[in-house]
């Protein structure tokens, strides 16, 4: 008799349990990747977003200014499992909760917006094949975030391979053809290898000098951007790129680099119409001066040390200026400074159409700038390594396992996902 009483009860509960499980699954159909202080690994969160875009061709929402620039995507158990493996924090929310978030973001009186991420960009990193005694912050963070990329250099650029990519990174590269102005290292094996490689490439393509070859490379890269590409540059790739373009047809290089002395009237012949970001600058051709021009703000001009070196991100209108808003998404608005061969850009030498994304007002310098060029975009970020204040030649690469929440490195990864966004017209 006792068993007979229990059986009807079991029969009543089984459908109820099935109903409840089904209801929970129906409600839990969005994954929110928070990018505020609750995120355990900000850098790998970008990598998981890229992985979803690349492997599943599924749209994601980038929630500008919502909890540090969070991401949201349709629920998929594989996504959740991969986030767990990579140590990325996520929240499972219902469609109703997702709708409430989107409604909150859409309200006209809040500085937020939702941007659709549609397709993972094809990424190229411009880097020499020979081993150099310094690292590259972008390749470090791409590797750490598990974002795939191809390495290209002068051969690939001169053979017109850039149109195969959407996004190109330039880092510690000297487009003036002066081998980084590291003449004091001329007897070091890495310097000799770099010089040999560049001279062989120049000869291969029938250029008389390395500066002529590097100018041709810079012009091909400029054409890539003009045609609709995305270019991101750090450290001395920023100013040497513009210097090379402005000095087209002018010898700005001293004799130990190309066999002929620099034109003493070179600065009067620079054409700033050719440059992307800077104007009215002067080159520095002297032998033992490692600076390329007066664009870079020098230590004596900056008047600061590591303990007081910070820069501030600008806050843009997410609804009206989605592009600069995407590029400045972060869980912090004050970023610790870091040095490079090119550290910062004098405000007075930046073209008026260029948007300053971050600056140090005390030093009258910009650290992070952006603009359009033709159909494409470029972003320049001063400094060498956001988590190594003064990275020296020969030092070990930064271990990003120690910096999974780096605000400085996040700015690099904003640029990685920017080309994936469905474009909205820039209003200002």
From TrEMBL:
* Name this protein carries in UniProt: Asparagine synthetase B
The alphabetical list of record keywords is: Membrane, Transmembrane, Transmembrane helix
TM regions (residue ranges): 12-33
User: Species name for this entry?
Assistant: Dyadobacter fermentans (strain ATCC 700827 / DSM 18053 / CIP 107007 / KCTC 52180 / NS114)
């Amino acid at each position: 008799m006792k068993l007979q009483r229990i059986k009807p009860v079991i029969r009543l509960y089984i459908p109820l349990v099935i109903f409840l499980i089904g209801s929970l699954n129906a409600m839990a159909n969005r994954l929110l990747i928070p990018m505020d202080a609750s995120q355990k690994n900000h850098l790998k969160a970008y990598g998981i977003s890229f992985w979803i875009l690349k492997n599943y061709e599924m749209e994601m929402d980038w929630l500008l200014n919502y909890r540090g620039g969070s991401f949201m995507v349709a629920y998929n158990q594989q996504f959740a499992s991969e986030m767990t493996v990579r140590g990325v924090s996520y929240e499972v929310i219902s469609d109703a909760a997702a709708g409430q978030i989107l409604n909150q973001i859409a309200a006209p009186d809040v500085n937020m917006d939702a941007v659709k991420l549609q397709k993972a960009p094809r990424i190229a990193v411009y880097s020499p094949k020979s081993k150099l005694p310094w690292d590259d912050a972008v390749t470090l963070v791409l590797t750490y975030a598990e974002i795939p990329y191809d390495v290209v250099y002068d051969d690939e650029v001169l053979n017109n391979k850039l149109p195969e990519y959407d996004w190109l990174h330039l880092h510690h590269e000297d487009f003036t053809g002066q081998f980084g102005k590291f003449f004091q290292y001329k007897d070091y094996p890495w310097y000799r290898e770099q010089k040999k490689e560049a001279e062989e490439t120049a000869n291969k393509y029938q250029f008389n000098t390395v500066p002529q070859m590097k100018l041709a490379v810079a012009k091909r890269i400029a054409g890539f951007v003009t045609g609709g590409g995305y270019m991101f540059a750090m450290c001395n790739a920023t100013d040497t790129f513009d210097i090379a373009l402005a000095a087209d047809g002018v010898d700005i290089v001293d004799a130990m680099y190309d066999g002929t002395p620099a034109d003493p009237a070179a600065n009067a012949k620079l054409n700033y119409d050719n440059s992307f970001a800077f104007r009215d600058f002067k080159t520095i051709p002297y032998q033992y001066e490692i600076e390329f021009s007066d664009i870079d703000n020098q230590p004596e001009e900056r008047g600061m040390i590591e303990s007081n070196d910070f820069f501030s991100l600008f806050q843009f209108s997410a609804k009206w200026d989605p592009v600069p808003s995407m590029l400045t998404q972060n869980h912090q608005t004050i970023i610790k400074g870091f040095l490079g061969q090119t550290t910062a850009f004098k405000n007075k030498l930046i073209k008026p159409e260029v948007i300053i994304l971050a600056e140090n007002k005390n030093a009258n310098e910009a650290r992070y700038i952006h603009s359009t060029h033709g159909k494409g975009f470029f972003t320049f970020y001063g400094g060498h390594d956001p988590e190594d204040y003064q990275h020296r030649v020969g030092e070990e690469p930064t271990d990003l396992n120690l910096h999974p929440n780096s605000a400085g490195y996040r700015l690099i990864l904003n640029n990685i996902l920017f080309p994936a966004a469905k474009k909205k017209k820039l209003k200002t």
